[in-house]
Amino acid sequence: MTILLVGGGGREHALAWRLARDFPGASLVAAPGNPGIARLARCVPTAAHDVAGLVALAQAERATFVVVGPEAPLAAGLVDRLREHGIPAFGPTQAAAQLETSKAFAKQVMREAGVPTAHATRHADAASAKAAARALGAPVVIKASGLAAGKGVIIAQSMAEADAAIDAMLVGGEFGAAGAEILVEAFMSGEELSLFLLTDGTRALPLPAAQDHKRVGEGDTGPNTGGMGAYAPVTIATPEIVRAAIDRVAEPLLAAMRARGTPFTGLLYAGLMLTPDGPKVVEFNCRFGDPETQVVLPLLSANLGEMILAVARGDSLAGVPFPRQHDLAAVGTVVAAAPYPETPRTGMPLVLPADADDLLVFHAGTARDATGTLVVSGGRVATVVGLAPTFAQAQARSTAAAAEVRFDGAFFRRDIGWREAGRAPRRD
Fold first, then answer.
1. Number of domains in the chain
2. Most buried one in 124, 244, 341, 398, CB count within 10 A?
3. DSSP H helical segments within 102-169, as ranges?
C-alpha cells in the first residue's frame, strides 16, 4: 500500500502519525511535508496547491489512496481531478467544499436543511453591511465569506468596531477575494465546540469533541489566529449533545448536499455554539481542523486509517460503530513566532523537545536550511501535545513542554483549556 498525504502543517504531521500507526506496513509519501513528517514519510517538494503536480505524483507513486489535509487543494478541485484518474481520495469535491470556501453558500444550505444557525445577511457593499449591523445591534459578527486562514471573523463589540471591520474587508480589501463578500451575522452566546464528523455522504461518525483557542493572547484577548491551542475531550460535549449535533446538524446537512447533487464525503468539521436552545452552527470546514487534529487523533483507539480508506474508496460506513477512544485527555499548546498573527520573523534556529509516552510534538512552521539546521519557517511553529489520565495532568505536561521549545521570539499561551480547568475534577 502507498498513501499520499497532501500538506505540510501540524494537522498533516498528526495525520501522518496516525496513518503510520494504522498502516504500519504502508509506504507513506507526503507533499510537501515538513521535517517532522519526514521522520514518518518520504517528503516530495510538490506544493499543496499544485493540483496537476499532485495528480501526476499520485500516478507516479501508484497511490492506493490520497489524503488531502488543507482546504486550498480541496477548494481547487484536487479530489475531482484524482477521481477522474481513478485514484481514491479522502475529501470533498470542489462543489461540496463550498461549505467552507463560501460562508454565504453554507448559510444557504443550512437554511434549506433547517440546520440551526445564527441569522445572517450577505453583502458586497459597505453601506448595506453597516445598515444590517445596526439592525442587529452590538455585539455583531462580521465574517469574510471566503477562505481567510481562520482570521476573517470579527466579533464587533460596538458599531464603531463593526464599521471598521466592514471597511477593512469591503473597502480596504484586507482579505482580498475572500472578503469581497461578507456576512453580517447575529451574535450567539454560549460555549464553542469543534466536532469532527467522518462521513461517507450519508452516515456521520463523530470523533472526540475538542475546543480550540483562536485569540492570540491569554484570557482570549487580542486578534484571531489560526489557533493557539486545543484540548479534547470536552466534558460538556455529552453523548446527548453529540447525538443532537448529528440529528439536527449533520444528517440534515448531508441530506441537503445529496439533494443538490453534491454529496459531501470526507471530514466535516462542525464548529458549534452550545446555546440554551441546543447546538447551533458557527461554521463548517471541509477538512480536519488545526490545531484540533493534533489532540483528537491521539485519543482514538479505533483504526481511523481503515475508515478513511473506506470513505476514499466510496464504501458505505453503514454498520460501522462510532470510533472508540482511549480514556485519556490531550492538551495541545501552539508555540508561535512573534509577531504572529502578523507576519512572523523566520529563519531562526529551533530546538524542540523529544516525543515521549506522554508527549507528542507536531511540526508546523519548520524547515531545514541549507546546512540541515532546523529553523522557523512560519507563524505557528509547533504544537506540543500532553497526554495524561486527567485534563490537569495533560495541561501541565503540554505547558511544560511548550516552555522547552527554543528559538528567538517564541511565545505561547499558558491557559489552553482554561474553561475545562474551571470545571474538571482534579484527581492528581
1. 4
2. 398
3. 103-113, 126-136, 159-166
